[in-house]
UniProtKB/TrEMBL annotation:
PROSITE patterns: PROLINE_PEPTIDASE
Source organism of this protein record: Flavimobilis marinus
Superkingdom as given in the UniProt entry: Bacteria
Start and end residues of each stretch annotated as Disordered: 1-52
Biased composition regions of type Polar residues, renumbered to the chain: 1-15
Name the UniProt record assigns to this protein: Xaa-Pro aminopeptidase
Keywords, in A-Z order: Aminopeptidase, Hydrolase, Manganese, Metal-binding, Protease
SMART domains: AMP_N
Length: 506
């Protein structure tokens, strides 16, 4: 299936612009008889509008919180545009996470859309969602536009549909440029943009600012990026429900993988069996995976982001599976289990596994309101350093390694222990340091606890029995009023329970 845009007959190949050469394959008819015929004779459209989304009351509260931080400033939050994969084929569309969070729109909704919060005269903002609504059937777009046309990508919603679904006023994308320019500069009205999301919107805002002599808005834009990221640090009830759904779907995906381990062992690229079993489940039960699956068997588990997944899965070794289902609202889980391929840990595998588990348990113990986010990592590192010292791997004591000028234990765990989780797998990444790393833990936060130990096969500082072993255990934790809840607790993590669970599935 290919895009066959109407072509000009006098285009000779050498002189033709590169961009236009995509059209050289076109054989689409261009006669008026064809156009009249294809744009007529269609049944009336279904006029039933959708019900308001369950998310709508929550997104309204989020927009109000953002509004309060930017009085008198027009806020521009684009969904983003299609990204070209190659030539005239695009990647599947995914809206920017801030746009999804503030509108409730998920999956593939809605390319080129822009949420604008227009400041009201006294206080607050009025939200308007600008997007490209369904085109009429007598338009050429209807049948000839491979990027937007109904024949090619299906019918888009109408302005009324999206207004009903989101509870947000809607307007045609054609009105965006004028709406953004209106009164900017007058009475101190400023415009803040979530930039680098949609180049076309960046250009419109740059022009508006130039016309109004507004220079140096970079700080304002950075503050908006920070604000929309920080807005997601505390999850509301709807978000927590979505996170539970994502984690539960992911746990089911891990079960499918365990059932498929025999097939994985039998295949030359067993890691791909693991990857595709999980990802098939993610597509069937959710939107997709929240990040590229890490299906790392044997020594590959020591490569932190092993996503090539083309290796064998061998009995006697372990499989590190780091995978998460992203649900339709775009919330994702991020879960890791390290499993003995044949269902039973060896003694040395169990020793490493238990050390990582103890580090995770220590981290869980301090992942409570009032503690500092940093304390979670520190607690895990104390256990990791202690175990490495007791195995004689550190050049000095555990205490010396834990000191800032030491840190030798990090040779075997170079990553952090925790990150916020939500619509982005590494959620809230633009939050200020004092709101993230240096923040006090609060109820409603959702983050991972994921210590690990990774002993590379060519590491000459460790005994041979450890070489090629990588273990990570990753859970998704919700901070509650008086402690925490491990959202992924239903996926066994203690070695005996892992073995029993695997046996029950095979
Ligand atoms: N799956 C990526 C991470 O654990 O952060
Ligand atoms: Mn993670
Ligand atoms: Mn992970």
């Amino acid at each position: 299936m290919s895009d066959e845009q109407a072509t000009t007959t006098d285009a000779t190949s050498e002189a033709q612009a590169l961009a236009a050469r995509n059209d050289n394959r076109s054989q689409r008819p261009d006669s008026s008889a064809f156009r009249e015929f294809i744009t007529s004779g269609w049944a009336p459209r279904d006029t039933q509008t959708p019900e308001q989304g369950e998310f709508a009351p929550y997104t309204a509260v989020r927009r109000s919180a953002l509004s309060a931080r930017f009085p008198g400033t027009r806020l521009v939050i684009p969904a983003g545009a299609f990204k070209v994969r190659s030539n005239d084929t695009d990647y599947r569309f995914r809206p920017h996470s801030a746009f999804a969070h503030l509108t409730g729109l998920g999956t593939d909704q809605e390319p080129d859309a822009v949420l604008v919060l227009h400041p009201l005269p006294v206080e607050g903002h009025e939200a308007v969602l600008y997007f490209r609504p369904l085109a009429p059937r007598d338009s050429t777009e209807f049948y000839s536009d491979s990027r937007y046309g109904e024949f090619w990508v299906g019918a888009r919603p109408s302005l009324e549909d999206v207004a009903a679904l989101t509870g947000i006023q809607t307007a045609h994308l054609d009105e965006l440029a004028d709406a953004l320019a209106k009164d900017v500069g007058a009475d101190g009205l400023r415009i803040a943009l979530l930039d680098d999301v949609d180049a076309a919107v960046d250009a419109i805002v740059a022009e508006v600012r130039a016309q109004a002599d507004l220079v140096d808005s970079a700080q304002l834009d950075a503050t908006l990026a920070e604000a929309v990221s920080e807005l997601r640090l505390i999850k509301d009830a709807y978000e927590i429900e979505q996170m539970r759904a994502a984690v539960d779907a992911s746990i089911a995906g891990f079960e499918h993988v365990v059932r498929a381990l025999g097939r994985a062992v039998a295949h030359a690229r067993g890691e791909r069996v693991v990857e595709t079993v999980f990802e098939a489940h993610a597509r069937l039960e959710g939107n997709t995976v929240g990040y590229d699956t890490i299906a790392a068997a044997g020594e590959h588990a020591t490569t932190l982001h092993w996503i090539r997944n083309d290796g064998e899965v061998r009995p006697g070794e372990m499989l590190l599976l780091d995978a998460g289902v992203e649900v339709e609202s775009l919330y994702t889980a991020d879960v890791t289990r390290t499993l003995p391929v044949d269902g039973t840990f060896t003694e040395v595998q169990r020793k490493v596994y238990q050390a990582v588990l103890d580090a995770a348990d220590a981290a869980f113990a301090v992942a409570v309101p009032g503690k500092n986010f940093r304390d979670v990592h520190a607690a895990a590192m104390e256990v990791i350093a202690d175990r490495l010292a007791s195995w004689g791997l550190l050049p000095g004591t555990a205490e010396e390694s834990l000191a800032p000028e030491g840190q030798q234990h990090r040779r075997w765990m170079v990553h952090g222990t925790s990150h916020h989780l939500g619509i982005d797998v590494h959620d809230c990444a633009q939050a200020r340091r004092e709101m993230y790393l240096d923040a006090t833990i609060e109820p409603g936060m959702v983050f991972t606890i994921e210590p690990g130990l990774y002993f590379k096969a060519d590491d000459l500082t460790i005994p041979a029995e450890l070489r090629g072993i990588g273990v990570r255990i990753e859970d998704d934790v919700l901070i509650t009023a008086d402690g925490n809840e491990n959202l992924s607790a239903a996926l066994p993590r203690r070695p005996d329970e892992v073995e029993a669970w695997m046996a029950s599935l095979r």
